Amino acid sequence: MEKNQQIENNFTYHAPKDGQPAKYEAIRAKAKELAYLIDELCPSSREKSLAFTNLEQAIFWSNAAIARNE
Q1: What is the domain extent for residue 35?
Q2: What number is the average pLDDT over the span 9-20?
Q3: Domains in the chain, number
Q4: Backbone conformation region of residue 51, classed left if phi is above 0, alpha if psi is from -120 to 50, else beta
Q5: Which of 3, 5, 11, 63 is deepest in the core (most CB within 10 A)?
Q6: CA distance 30 to 26
Q7: Are 48 and 42 in contact, with CB atoms under 8 Å apart?
Q8: Does pLDDT of 59 surpass 90?
Q9: Neighbouring C-alpha atoms within 13 Å toward the C-beta of 10
């Protein structure tokens, strides 16, 4: 069976390369700022919880983009 390169890439551990940890930290820092703003301005609700969940997903996928494609 021929290997699918995207599957191979997506399901492989990608050790951080030079400069990547700083990129991950920059993304997390900005997301944390937004998380605090959401926490301050939004009432406790399902919607607020979803906002936090989707922010976490945005961080995850941003980091995956860096890890998988650089």
Answers
A1: 18-69
A2: 96
A3: 1
A4: alpha
A5: 63
A6: 6
A7: yes
A8: yes
A9: 6
52 in Cβ contact with 38 (< 8 Å): yes
Query: Which residue has 């050790």 as its token pair?
Result: 15
Q: Which two tokens stand for residue 51?
A: 């906002």
Expressed in percent and rounded to 5, the helix, strand and coil fractions of the chain are 75, 0, 25
- The pLDDT of residue 1 is 87
The answer to whether position 47 is within a domain reads yes
For residue 53, being part of any structural domain is answered with: yes
pLDDT at 69: 96
Predicted local confidence at residue 35, as pLDDT: 98
Q: Calculate mean pLDDT across residues 13-42.
A: 98
pTM: 0.87
